[in-house]
Design brief:
- By secondary structure, the chain is α/β, with parallel strands linked by helices.
- The protein has one domain: Aminopeptidase (3-Layer(aba) Sandwich).
- It contains seven helices and eleven strands.
- The protein has a seven-stranded mixed β-sheet, sandwiched between helices. Strands 4-5 form a two-stranded antiparallel sheet.
- A hairpin with a 2-residue loop joins β4 and β5.
- α2 packs across α7 and α4 crosses α7.
- The chain is globular.
- The protein starts with 14 loop residues before the first strand and ends in a 15-residue tail after the last helix.
- The chain binds zinc ion.
């Protein structure tokens, strides 16, 4: 639970970058890895217990992402602030960008915000995070490098009284090619894999993959792991090892299937379906 340490915006610039680029295709992004709250917002009017729930952050994905970055020798870009401050996987102005209530828990500090207060959160948290991702992708594309956007998330095992059976879900919308290949590899491991479950990727409910994957016509995949599997270090390590093994396999299959030469950028024409 490393995100807990970063509770002061002076110590946490809002964006944390992990891993070193070892020349592979993957860029990892984690919109909900952090749970920090800028000090000027206090505790948001939400108890520490509730802020530590799934409504505050994607439990366990910080450990998975950082271990995965190390194993893949890839760069990981993380948002360190809680999604209760502003959700970095929502377009600015989206009804759930700054939530007033989440899974039954009111967020009093988010009620009756002025336009200036909203803009301040966007300018200091949302936009710098996405600008950092854009910077990473721009540099790679300028160098003519193959680039695959991997969005990492985790989901709560139970929602609205319903238990969720999937251990992992892959979300996709306009370009499902890489998601389908990775889904098949995960199923071969004997896992119950959600196909656009527990959530479907859409133009409006998501922001990161539509912005950095779909609009730029970059191969991409959005991965959701069930939180009870990764809320402890051994589980995080297990999932990082699994994804570090399967993501390169999925990418190799992608290159074979769609005629992309590893080392060259995916043909933009073939990138959207
Ligand atoms: Zn998430």
């Amino acid at each position: 639970m490393t995100g807990e340490a970063m509770t002061d915006e002076k110590a946490a610039p809002g964006v944390a970058v992990y891993g070193t680029d070892g020349g592979g295709p993957f860029v990892l992004v984690s919109d909900h890895a952090g749970r920090a709250v800028p000090s000027y917002l206090g505790d948001l009017g939400v108890s520490a217990e509730d802020r530590a729930r799934h409504i505050g952050w994607d439990i366990g994905i910080d450990g998975v992402g950082r271990a995965l970055a190390q194993k893949l020798q890839a760069v990981l870009i993380e948002q360190v602030y809680s999604r209760l401050v502003i959700d970095c996987n929502r377009a600015p102005g989206h009804p759930t960008s700054i939530v007033k209530i989440s899974d039954g828990t009111p967020v009093p500090t988010n009620h009756a915000l002025t336009a200036e207060q909203i803009a301040y959160r966007e300018d200091t948290i949302l936009h710098p995070y996405h600008a950092r991702i854009t910077q990473e992708l721009d540099a790679r594309l300028k160098a003519g490098r193959p680039t695959v956007v991997v969005a990492l998330h985790s989901f709560t095992p139970e929602m609205g009284g319903l238990k969720r059976p999937w251990q992992v879900g892959l979300l996709h919308n306009h370009d499902k090619r890489l998601a389908v290949l990775l889904m098949e590899l995960l199923r071969k491991e004997g896992l119950t894999v959600g196909d656009n479950e527990p959530y479907a990727l859409t133009d409006t409910s998501d922001y990161t993959v539509p912005t950095h994957g779909e609009k730029r016509q970059l191969p991409h995949v959005e991965i959701e792991i069930r939180q009870d599997l990764i809320d402890h270090p051994a589980g995080q390590e297990e999932w990082a090892a699994r994804l570090a093994r399967l993501l390169p396999q999925a990418w190799a299959l992608f290159c074979q299937t769609y005629g992309v030469t590893p080392g060259a950028q995916a043909d933009a024409e073939g990138a959207m379906t």
